[in-house]
Amino acid sequence: MSIDYKPAVHFNHVSYAIDGNKILKSVTGSFPEGKITTLVGPSGAGKTTLLKLCNGLLSPALGELYVKGQLIESYEPTELRRLVGIALQSAPMVSGTVYGNLALPMELQNKKLSEDAALQLLHDVGLEEEFLHRNVSDLSGGQRQKVSIARTLVNQPAILLLDEITSSLDRTSLKEIEELIVAINRKYRTTMIWITHNLQQALDIGDFTWVMMEGEVIETGESDLLKSPATEKVRRFVKGGAV
Amino acid sequence: MSYWTLSLTLIFVALPLLLSKTLHLGLERDTVIATARSIVQLLAVGYILKFVFDSESLLYIFLMVTLMIVAATHNAQKKGAAIKGIIWKVAVTLVFVEVLTQSVLLGFGITPPTAQYIISISGMVIGNSMVLAILFLNRFTAEVETHQDKTELILSLGGTPKQAIHNQLMHSIKASMIPTIESQKTVGLVQLPGMMSGQIIAGADPIQAVQFQLLIMFLLLTTAAVTSVMLGFLSYPTLFNQRMQLLKS
After folding, report:
1. Does the pLDDT at position B200 exceed 60?
2. What's the rounded Cα separation, in Å, for the pair B79 and B86?
C-alpha cells in the first residue's frame, strides 16, 4: 500500500497453509494505524485466515507479521489478543445475561467489571440501560452484534478485527453498526480491519481497502480503487458486486 | 452347574437368532460370533483364574492386572483418537485408579491381600474405568467440536486454554459420571447387581453379599470421578499449542 501511514499491522511475505492447501500466498502489506481498512474478495480468498493471524488465533507458516512494530511472536498470546480484538459474524455469546458477557473479558483476568462501566459500554454501542440484565437469548441479531462489539471493547483494543459483522443484519441494524464502528474509530482512534462482502459499505466506511482472491492480495489502496480498479480480475469482481 | 445344564442355556441364544432371522435384522452372524467369543474368553479366563488362585503368586496377579489394563486401554483409546497421545493418558489414568483403589482396600485391611480379591475387584474397577473413559472421551470430543466458536471466543478475549475449555470439560466430566450415580440411586429397587446376585446364587449370606456390593459401589463412585477428572485434565492441554491456539482435529 503506497500510503505514508504508520502501520498498525504489517505483513511481510506471510503464507499460511492447511494440510498442504495454500490459504495465503506470500501476503505483503500494511494496515494503517487509526484507519478503517476493509478486506473484500470472493469467499475462500483467505480473508478470515488473515484476520485470525492478526490476533494470533493462527500463526503464519512463512514470513513475518508485525503488530504495532513488534514481531507477533514477541507478544504473549493473551496480551496480543487483548491488544487486537475480534468480532465475528456469528457474535457468539456465553449463556446468561448481557452483563455476564460484558464482564467476561475482565473475569478472564480475575477482575470485576463494575455496573457503571458496563452501562457506559452499552451507551457506547447505542443500547439502553435496560439491556444490561437481559438474557442474551432474547436479543435480536443487531443487538447481539452490538453486545459482541461492546464486549470486545472491554479490553480497550488498539486494533479491532471485524469479520462480516453486518452480513446477516437488516438494513436498519446494518446502518446502526456502521455508524457505531465509525464512531468508535473516531473516538478511540482504533485501527479497524473489516471483512465485508458489501462493496458499497467498503466505499462508504473504509478509508482503505484490500482486494483478495485465492489467497493473494490483488489490489490495495484508498477505497476509491473499487470505483476504478487497476486489474481486470478486480474489475470483474467489482462488477459482480455492483458498485 | 454341569456342562449339560450349561449347554441348555444356549436356548437364550437361539431365541435372538430366531428373531433376527424372522425379522431380517441381519444380526445372526454377530450373535454367533459374540456367543462363541464369550464362551471361549470366559472359559479361558476361568482356567487362568483357577491357575492364578491356586498358585497365589504375586507375579501372576501383577500379570493379570497388567493384561486387564492393556486390554482396557486398547479399547478406550479408540474413542479419543483425535487427542494426541491418548493411549498413554488412558493407560496412566487406569493405572492410577487401580493403584489408588487397591492401596485403600489393602492398606486399610478392607479386603484380604489374596489373588481372589485383588483380581476380581481389579476387574470391576478397570472395567468400569474403561467404560467411564469411553463415555468421557465420546462426550468431550463432541463438546469440543460443537462449541469450537465459544472456545475461540474466550481465547480471542485473552483467555487461557484452560479458561477456554473449562465449560466443555466440566460438562463432559459431569455427563460421564451421571450414569454411575444414577444407577446407584435405583440399586436394589430396579436392579440387583450382578456380583451380589452371583454371591447369593452361590449360597452366600445375603447380608454379606450386600456388604460386598456396597463396597464395590462406593469403589465405582471413586473410579468414575477419578477417571473422568484425571483423563479430562490430561487431555485438554493437547488440544492447544504453545501459542494458545486451538488445534483442529
Report:
1. yes
2. 9
Q: What is the mean pLDDT of residues A115-126?
A: 93
Between CA A92 and CA A87 the distance in angstroms is 9
The verdict on B74 and B44 lying in the same domain is no
Q: B152 touching A, CB under 8 A?
A: yes
- How far CA B103 is from CA of A223, B73, B110, in Å, comes to 72, 21, 10
How many independent structural domains does chain B possess?
2
Q: Quick check: B55 pLDDT over 90?
A: no
Q: Output the CA angle A225-A227-A230, nearest 5 degrees.
A: 50
C-alpha radius of gyration, chain B, whole number = 21
Size of interface A-B (CB pairs under 8 A): 57
Of B154, B246, B248, the CB nearest to A108: B154
Torsion sign across C-alpha atoms B151, B156, B158, B160: positive
Q: Sign of the C-alpha dihedral, residues B66, B67, B71, B72?
A: negative
**Residues B245, A59: C-beta atoms closer than 8 Å:** yes
Residues B68, B50 within the same domain: no
Residue of A nearest to B240 (CA): A57
Can you tell me the ipTM of this complex? 0.91
Q: What residues of A are in contact with residue B149 (Cβ under 8 Å)?
A: 88, 90, 92
- In this structure, is residue B245 part of a structural domain? no
* Residue B12 domain boundaries: 1-55
CA closest to A88 among chain B residues: B153
Q: Please check whether residue A203 touches B, CB under 8 A.
A: no
pLDDT tens per residue, range B146-183: 999 999 999 999 999 999 999 999 999 999 999 999 88
A155/B159 touch (CB, cutoff 8 Å), yes or no: no
Q: Are B166 and B159 in contact (CB under 8 A)?
A: no
> Which domains occur in chain A, in start order?
7-90+158-241 (3.40.50.300)
What is the pTM assigned to this prediction?
0.84
Strand partners, A212: A217
Determine phi and psi for A17, rounding to 5 degrees.
-140, 150
Q: For residue B152, which residues of chain A lie inside 8 Å, CB to CB?
A: 57
- Substitution target in A65, A104, A107, A152 with the highest count of B β-carbons within 10 Å is A104
Q: Are residues B196 and B93 in the same domain?
A: yes
A152 part of contact set with chain B, CB < 8 Å? yes
Of A57, A73, A90, nearest to B156 by CB-CB distance is: A57
pLDDT, residue A140, reads 93
Sign of CA dihedral B118, B121, B125, B126: positive
Q: Is A140 on the interface with B (CB under 8 A)?
A: no
Q: Is the CB of residue A30 less than 8 Å from the CB of residue A10?
A: yes
Name every chain A residue with its beta carbon within 8 A of the beta carbon of B248: 18
